[in-house]
Amino acid sequence: MRSLILLGLVGLAAQLVDGSLGMAYGVTSTTLLLAIGTNAAAASATVHLAEIGTTLASGLSHWRFGNIDWKVVGKIGVPGAVGAFAGATFLSNLSTEFAAPIMSIILLTLGLYILVRFTAFGLPRGNLGKPLRKRFLAPLGLVGGFVDATGGGGWGPVGTPAILASGRIPPRKVIGSIDASEFLVAIAASIGFLVGIGSENINFAWVGVLLLGGMIAAPVAAWLVRHVPPRILGSAVGGVIVLTNVRTLLRSDWVDAPGGVQASAYIAIAVLWAAAVAYSVREYRRDQENESVEALEQEARRREAVEEASTA
């Protein structure tokens, strides 16, 4: 019962992060499942089955708040589903001993990307209003879907930064569109895992509690995306993912690091993580101050223009 409650809380927290940041539900949940000894394919299958419900709830919530660009959803979602089915089939055919470290490496890479991306760069805002082409979105969806299924997460970490980097649609619509299109990815990956490993290898009680936690959090996350600084949240979540997956790798048969090495690695990661979060907080405050100054300057110029027009 304690494990089920914990998983439910993880599902809730992961969906709060995912709905606010456009990524990390699968990466966060799969990381925990691997940490408690679930095999790689079963962990990814469990998360993707839960995501059918959480992504549906998240998509509906984002739609309600006007956070979705349906053209983007269509152009990226279908290729993403194809890639997810292929990834699930691939992972299902790997041995457990081989698959677990590979998944941890994928998750660690994604965690590092999230940490560095949001700490160093924040959210780009140029090129707003320009259309996103299918020749960009289709390959992105295919790769994102494959990585998502094989890594137990990755749709958001691959898709969200790539579309954000284009700067062509507002950040909240990037996040809403990625969350909505992930519904198709979750369905395709789940079908692939059910065919590949069979339903008897999936703990449906775990699926249920992850789903429940995620569905509770989905509407809150859709609201939070308008209010929580993504830069700070990205740094915080990226650090959690990096620390957890480094722990899994250091304890794996591939590395089997001594206790002293493990402790030193954890301390070093924790220090860098704290520094990254502190830097993100500082840069966010600086950006807010700059935006306030720019707004005041624009208002002053507007008033001067009005006064000049009235005296002319």
Features:
globular
Question: How is this structure best summarized?
Answer:
The chain is 82% helix and 0% strand.
Describe this structure in words.
The chain contains 11 helices and no strands. With 312 residues, it is mainly α. The protein has one domain. Helix 2 (25-35) packs antiparallel against helix 3. The longest helix has 53 residues, at 259-311. 50% of the residues are buried.
Q: Which spans of ≥5 residues are poorly predicted at pLDDT below 50?
A: none
Write down how many β-strands occur, each being a DSSP E stretch of 2 or more residues. 0
Q: Indicate the structural class.
A: mainly alpha
- What is the radius of gyration? 21 Å
Main sheet attributes: strand count, strand direction, barrel closure: none
What order do the helices and strands follow? HHHHHHHHHHH
* Average pLDDT reading: 76
Proportion of strand residues: under 5%
User: Tell me, what's the shape?
Assistant: globular
Specify the number of helices: 11
- Number of individual domains: 1
Q: What is the CA–CA distance across the termini?
A: 77 Å
